[in-house]
Amino acid sequence: MNVSFTKKQEDYIAEQIKSGDFQNASEVVRDALRLHEVYRHRVIQDLKAEIEKGWDSNSSSRSIKDIIDSKKKKDA
């Protein structure tokens, strides 16, 4: 398998090896993939939990326009 990295990513990998935390680039990439898997799993679980909260809650009496207008006021 061949993987291409940007210069910034290559520099980061080299820094991690130089720090002594990793022996080689493969270890850095494997660690990054493990962390990505944990992060992705957590995001999906959080989204599922929010969807469940939505399904389990009462319906809102606000219209879509009311919700959008409320959001615009908060951002202003």
TrEMBL record:
Protein's name in the database: Type II toxin-antitoxin system ParD family antitoxin
Protein family according to the UniProt entry: Belongs to the ParD antitoxin family.
Claim: Amino-acid biosynthesis is one of the keywords in the record: no
InterPro entries registered for this protein in UniProt: ParD, ParD_sf, Ribbon_hlx_hlx
Keyword Secreted tagged: no
Native organism: Chryseobacterium salviniae
NCBIfam families per the UniProt record, alphabetical: antidote_CC2985
Domain of life: Bacteria
Keywords: Toxin-antitoxin system
Region (Disordered): 53-76
Biased composition (Basic and acidic residues): 63-76
